[in-house]
Known about the structure:
By secondary structure, chain A is mainly alpha-helical. Chain A has helices spanning 6-34, 54-63, 74-105, 111-120, 130-139, 146-150, 157-168, 172-180, 185-196, 198-213, 217-222, 231-242, 248-268, 270-280.
Amino acid sequence: MIEKRPLANIISHTVLILGIFIVAFPIWITFVAASHDAVRMTQIPLPLLPGGHFWENLRYAFSRGVGNAREISVGMMLFNSLVMALMIAGGKIAISLLSAFAIVYFRFPFRMAFFWMIFITLMLPVEVRIIPTYKVVADLGMLDNYWGLSIPLIASATATFMFRQVFLTIPDEMLEAARIDGAGPMRFFWDILVPMSRTNIAALFVILFIYGWNQYLWPLLITTDKSMYTIVMGIKSMLEAAEEAPEWHLIMMSALLAMLPPVIVVVGMQKLFIRGLTETEK
Amino acid sequence: MLKRVHFRPSILPYLLVAPQVAITIIFFIWPASQALWQSMLVEDAFGLSSRFVWFDNFKALFADPTYLGAFQRTAFFSLMVAAISMSAALALAAMADRVIKGGKTYRTLLIWPYAVAPAVAGALWMFMFDPTIGIAANALKALGVDWNFRVNGNQAMALVILAASWKQISYNFLFFLAGMQAIPKSLIEAAAIDGAGPARRFWTIIFPLITPTTFFLLVMNVVYAFFDTFGIIHAVTKGGPAKATEILVYKVYNDGFVGLDLGGSAAQSVILMAIVIGLTVIQFRYIEKRVEY
Lengths: 282, 293
């Protein structure tokens, strides 16, 4: 604040509050819809204030499915999403740590070739190679299981780059000291590199968890068995049925549950989230 | 790139890069080269045999009005998403940069749509704008707008643009705010002493100084609108009505996975790959410089 301008301050706060109102409005409407019953959701105009059926809808969602995804409960879909998100985030971090370690701390033939090969993955998002990738996964028998949902997505150029950057800032004396003390490469990796990049790992985990949780196209392609549905695509199939028989209160309850875990991660670990976001996009 | 001090050569580094490289080859490079190969083949009607036709698939694509239409639509869609979400985020960040009290709270309340999956964001907006019961749809009808995005293509486009922009505001907001907070306070103070008001300071100092951030965000928003909005389109409109919201990524999926036109879909994939490569090059060549004022 440079000078006193009460009017300008009032305008700033008003704009911000208005912005928050617009950003939050869709979520509020979702929450309100999730707390009413089916009958109320057919009467126009729809309510703007929450009703008394929230817990009832929640219990229903956890025990049974909705719409076209009737065969699988929302609870089960949440579990699938969680497994997929954790496998993707954990897998990406693990293999990127290892390859960044190799590229920074070893001199070996084809080192740069491997580096560029990893770099290329940045240019090949799944959206541009849908059918051939589907075919590979089908040939490997990875359709309709957790491996197929996660493994093809865990190569990561951005994570490898970030760890490379982090390792390059670690002073060479660390390695010299470790070698004088007789530590081998893996010992050095586990006892020095990994602990020293702890915050970066955590920041990256936050970003990758959200990335994994919100996957849509990939699970859509490779799951036909409804018991493998993730929550994000489950909502899509609920919407399909909604055209004839809308069960909006249950769909909105599921949408609420689908966004809860990543939102909690973002809000609860805000510092790490912002750090991860700015570091990986560099 | 490489440490001055490193470990003795051994087989270990190969084992360390093996998982990443194996996944890259199996799930990235192999399928991409398949797409490249496939894009030059034509299959017969029964999928029994295929013929090598060089660039005929590409020629056919660029002669196809529906493909060119999808191209135009994608350009329009991504520019609109970038314009709306960036200007909203810029205004909010400029205000958040000014306020002292409650800055953190505002930030917290503005960032979480980032975490909402595109398909879920689509579901929320679809509910609000549902032609029969949606709250926003009823408000529009009360204003005399004949709202039905399931029939009216322009309205469907407007809806997916809104949903996509809404989700992207938090990302842009965070980067704009970080950019503004990196500007030395002495510059702003000097301008204030010279008598420049807040608006003047914003347009003559802050806005020019965050140009690199703006450019970076423009590229990232185009990438987002091109590829990450598939979930919104698929959940809300399925490219309809009458292809009014069919963007390139959706068309690749629809032609290949639903329509089973393998050659045409692969050719589209190759064009998209070229676009991603172009965007990545722009991002890496020019954006590295974004912190050097």
